[in-house]
Amino acid sequence: MEKETTVQKMQTIGSSDFSKHPCFNEDSKHRYGRIHLAVAPKCNVQCNFCNRKFDCTNESRPGVTTCVLKPEEALAHLAKIEELTDNLAVVGIAGPGDPFANPEETMATLERVHAQYPEKLLCVSSNGLNIFDYIPRLAKLNVSHVTITVNAVDPEIGASIYEWIVFQKKAYNGIEGAQLLLQRQTEAIRELKRYGIVVKVNTVVIPRVNEHHVPAIAKYVAALGADIQNCIAMIPVKGTPFEELYEPSASDMRMVRAKTSIHIKQMKHCARCRADAAGLLGEDINNPDSRRENPQEIQFKQGRYIAVSTSNGISVDTHLGRASYLAIYAWQEEKPRLIEKRDISVIRNAPDRWNELANLLSDCFLLLTSRVGGKPLRSLTENGFLVEAVEGNVSEIVNSVFKNKVIPREALRMVGYCDSGNGC
Known about the structure:
The structure is a single chain. The protein has helices at 6-10, 71-84, 103-116, 135-140, 155-161, 174-194, 214-224, 250-260, 353-360, 374-382, 394-402, and strands at residues 33-36, 45-47, 88-93, 121-126, 143-149, 162-167, 170-172, 198-205, 228-233, 266-267, 278-279, 305-308, 315-316, 325-332, 335-343, 364-369, 386-389, 392-393. The radius of gyration is 24 Å and the shape is elongated. The strands form four sheets. An eight-stranded mixed beta sheet has the order 10-9-8-5-4-3-1-11. Strands 15-14-12-16-17 form a five-stranded mixed beta sheet. The protein is α/β, with parallel strands linked by helices.
């Protein structure tokens, strides 16, 4: 009988081994721990929701670590953590950048860990851009689980998520960059499955950017052979283009997972770990006090009216920064009625423009506009106004709000992200 080929051997490794990996098996999260070795600081993709910080112990999110380790330091750190816990089953590399934007450090670390701790499950988490050529080496090291982050399978949507992509020392932007990234991710998932490696696909759910698109991602990666998908609610991060977007609620995420679960198994217990996390899922031996602060609760106004940014009274079609007036609607005789066109051009050059606008709208509880930037959104929200970016028929949307119905999802647009140069 001929000897098994390398691929045939690798197909038996980890193909159904979810039992001790807390990220792939919910039943393991309270019994087996994991450690992330932060040896990969560089990244080859800039996402519009990501701001990597290396020294922030009060944040618990991907891309954050207290320090970056060299491969030899990572092994010493692992030995130290081993002394503190008796349930460490998984050793992974998840940043704080991308492991394969730092391939030498990543592979050297995995080689050292595999030689010293052959019984440990090894895993890596990557955006998939540069992993392909390293898959045979990963398989030889018994890396059994790999996570690939796929946030779009439509290049137009991807172009709004990724600021730039660097591949083979060349930068790509827009649709071209998104197409290249998707091509590389597709090839990587197929190759990982050819080697029998368990593949989890992470998808960051971004309100009004890709939230409606997640089922399409699930269907696409399932067809490639991915084993499980982890839909992660985006955490708004200061200093990023998406900092003013809101974090999807638990109910939003349940809805997303319900739609995606018809295509692929869903992970529902993700702790959104730091790049240097250690211990059981949801805890951190390195930073026991690390936690996310609860956002300040806003008390919204109880005004009577709705203000609308419109040029014709038919459609919500005007950017707040360009509007010279706002249409004010009231609920009268069981229907919304236009009661006033309120001039706001008088405050256009005011030094405290958005607080002035808040004063002018003191009798309103909601502002509807086609687009609104981060600065006015933040100021108006702090003044107690609910602000929604929408496009569509004024009467239909206003009627829905007055009747306490949900604004149609197809009418919603991104809030707080604006490049119009109107002081927003």
